Amino acid sequence: MSEAKHNKSGPKKGAQKYQNTFAYTHNKGSKLSKKILSLPIDGLCAKCFDQITWRKTYRKYKPLTVAATCVSCNQKNIKKAYHVLCDPCAETKKVCAKCMQVKEIVIDENTLIAQQLELEQTDFKKHLQGMRERVRRSYLRKLERGEITPEEVLAIQVTEDFDDFSDFSSEED
After folding, report:
1. What is the pLDDT of residues 57-106, one digit of tens each?
2. How far from the centroid of its chain's Cα atoms is residue 9's Cα?
3. Are residues 50 and 98 in the same domain?
4. 58/70 same-domain check
5. Residue that wins the pLDDT comparison between 107 and 97
6. Which of 71, 135, 146, 172 measures 20 to 30 Å from 60, CA to CA?
7. Residue 44 DSSP SS3
8. pTM over 0.85, yes/no
């Protein structure tokens, strides 16, 4: 008996024969490519996140056309391709929605930016609601003209104690 290892798939293959001269690029005008690239990647571990990102980069990602069935709750509510758990089940079990392993979930930069933008918009709206009507309208007009930024509006302190319409001064003579 020989002690040599036998690989069932044949001899080990080397590197690719010809090196690519340029990287793969998506078709610029393709609506499907734009739709695929805009889809968020969330609820996945680092390994699965990289796999989905690779699929999107090299146009191997195939979006779902019909909702898939969740392995845990058997409901047809998976709307993201390559996921086997729905978002609520993955969150309650605290596992990756693709490989179902307990790993740290990676947050996509796009979803993080979207959440941050949504939070800033709600802060901005709350700040505007605290202003008087004519001050609010004047700031909104300045925003439309580009004279002021939303950050500058948020930096402005809302004063409740000042009243323009009062005929009486606070100091009595």
Report:
1. 999 999 999 999 999 999 999 999 999 999 999 999 999 999 999 999 88
2. 41
3. yes
4. yes
5. 97
6. 71
7. strand
8. no
